Inverse folding.
């Protein structure tokens, strides 16, 4: 006869393969999985996304009880600024002036490429770096980075209601107060609709369906690679940078089906910019009426090269440029602009108070 301890140890030893096999089913439910097996996403990413969805109860916002507690304390909704960078935050001093005096109305999250040596800026940017992974231009890694930022911000503060993705080359075109009022026209109503599918607020994301090279982008992974989840008629493109409502941030973090397609490697690298395809396509399919179809980040594509937009240099920076960049051919006004070269920081700082933040 075997003693009880030996039987217990032998049983545990035999159960290890079973635990290993079924662990993904336990840790990650079907709505966080691709079919019946874990995809290539790292388990820590999946765990982060799962926590983000769980933190909002699987819906578009926090529970009614959470909202009631927030309303009792009379807080104001916040804007989560998501900095996606693979270099130093050159314009941190300008953003510091932008954020000054509004500490209770925003949060900052920075995803920096860990393979690049980056100097951490101080001030409001201190201790705002999230767990990051390497990113590469024109690859699904930029989608993953944006989703990590969104998930972290969802978990971190239930008052984060808007999520603005910006790059290290972005600058503000208005004061923080202007941006806040522009997004939250009525902060009382914003809190009343906190976590509600009926929220009056829309996401500001560019969604285009008639670009000249739309088909080339669609077949970049192969002529039928996107089917059946993404038929060509539903494929969209747009700017990489956006401002999403909380309910749409949850949609992005929760989504798995389209991600299976957009993470596929491209046959041709030239028209393949997954970060410009995934978000517009997903939100166009999920909630087109809840999106402006317009980005609030101004980019100049008239002098682009190698897929990069025009880079503003020192001689071009002037008050007139700021006024010009604010304007649009839409009913919306641009709040941010890119790309600016590092040398433009000094003149931008010099005219910050009298031009950029006077609106």
């Amino acid at each position: 006869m075997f003693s009880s301890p030996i039987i217990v140890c032998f049983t545990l030893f035999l159960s290890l393969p079973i635990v290993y096999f079924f662990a993904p089913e336990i840790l990650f439910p079907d709505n966080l999985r691709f079919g019946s097996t874990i995809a290539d996403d790292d388990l820590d990413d999946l765990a982060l996304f799962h926590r983000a969805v769980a933190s909002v109860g699987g819906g578009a916002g926090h529970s009614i009880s959470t909202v009631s507690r927030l309303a009792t304390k009379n807080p104001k909704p916040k804007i989560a600024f998501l900095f996606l960078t693979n270099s130093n935050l050159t314009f941190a001093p300008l953003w510091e002036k932008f954020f000054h005096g509004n500490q209770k109305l925003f949060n900052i999250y920075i995803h920096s490429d860990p393979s690049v040596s980056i100097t951490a800026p101080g001030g409001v940017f201190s201790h705002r770096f999230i767990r990051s992974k390497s990113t590469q231009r024109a690859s699904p890694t930029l989608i993953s980075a944006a989703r990590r930022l969104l998930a972290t911000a969802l978990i971190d503060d239930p008052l984060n209601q808007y999520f603005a993705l910006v790059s290290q080359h972005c600058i503000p075109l208005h004061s923080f107060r202007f941006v806040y009022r522009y997004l939250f026209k009525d902060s009382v109503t914003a809190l009343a609709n906190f976590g509600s599918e009926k929220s009056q607020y829309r996401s500001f994301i560019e969604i285009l369906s008639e670009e000249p090279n739309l088909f080339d982008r669609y077949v970049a992974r192969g002529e039928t690679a996107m089917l059946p989840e993404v038929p060509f008629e539903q494929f969209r493109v747009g700017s990489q940078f956006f401002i999403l409502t909380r309910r749409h941030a949850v949609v992005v973090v929760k989504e798995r089906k389209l991600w299976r397609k957009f993470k596929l490697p491209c046959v041709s690298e030239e028209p393949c910019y997954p970060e410009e395809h995934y978000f517009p396509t997903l939100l166009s399919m999920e909630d087109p009426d809840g999106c402006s179809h317009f980005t609030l980040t101004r980019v100049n594509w008239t002098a682009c090269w190698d897929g990069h937009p025009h880079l503003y240099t020192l001689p071009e920076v002037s008050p007139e440029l700021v006024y010009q960049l604010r304007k649009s051919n839409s009913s919306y006004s641009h709040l941010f602009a890119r790309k600016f070269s590092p040398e433009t920081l000094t003149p931008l700082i010099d005219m910050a108070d009298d031009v950029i933040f006077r609106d």
Notes: The first strand starts at residue 78 and ends at 85. The mean pLDDT is 85.
